[in-house]
Amino acid sequence: MIFPIVFLWKRLTFCQNNVIPHTYCEHIGLAKYACNDICVNIWYRLFVLMSPVVLDTLLTFVSYMLILYAVFHMSSQDACQKALITCGSHVCIIIRFYGPGIFTPLTQMFGHHIPPHIHILLANNVCVLAPPMLNPIIYGNKMKQIQQQMAHIFFPK
């Protein structure tokens, strides 16, 4: 899915600035500096962005429905609770993984009213800062002590 992007870039001519004002090279971020029409690039990027997300979301939803069906038919309440906690962590990781991957290209394509420095700051925070910060919280939430502290923070008595 990524290989055709090289040929989409190759057909473009760049007549503006040759410096990308981003911290990483993103397809639409680079294509926006072309003098040519980039409609094909935009539609291809939207296809590349949405096709795996839609397919993965559909397959994940079906698999979690089957998992939840199996979990709720367990005889042990403790095993049911552990399975739900594990599933909750997995869903959080899936959201954390797909969120930045969807956020950045969509703001590149449709966020024309967002100033470039704000876009770069948001993209860096969402893609670079948030994942390492959230992983310990998501995976650590399985520990009993962390669960108790989180419950104490969010639901004080």
Automatic annotation (TrEMBL):
Regions that span the bilayer: 53-72, 79-98, 118-140
Cell membrane keyword on record: no
**Annotated Gene Ontology cellular component terms:** plasma membrane
- Membrane topology of this protein: Multi-pass membrane protein
User: What keywords would UniProt list here?
Assistant: Membrane, Olfaction, Sensory transduction, Transducer, Transmembrane, Transmembrane helix
Give the molecular function GO annotations.
olfactory receptor activity
UniProt KW Nucleotidyltransferase keyword? no
Superkingdom, natural source: Eukaryota
Per UniProt, subcellular location reads as: Membrane
Q: Name one GO biological process term.
A: G protein-coupled receptor signaling pathway
Family annotation (InterPro entries): Olfact_rcpt, OR51/52/56-like
User: Known PANTHER family for this protein?
Assistant: OLFACTORY RECEPTOR 52B4, OLFACTORY RECEPTOR 56B1-RELATED
- The protein here is known as Olfactory receptor family 52
Q: Which organism is it from?
A: Ovis ammon polii
Q: What is the lineage of its organism?
A: Eukaryota, Metazoa, Chordata, Craniata, Vertebrata
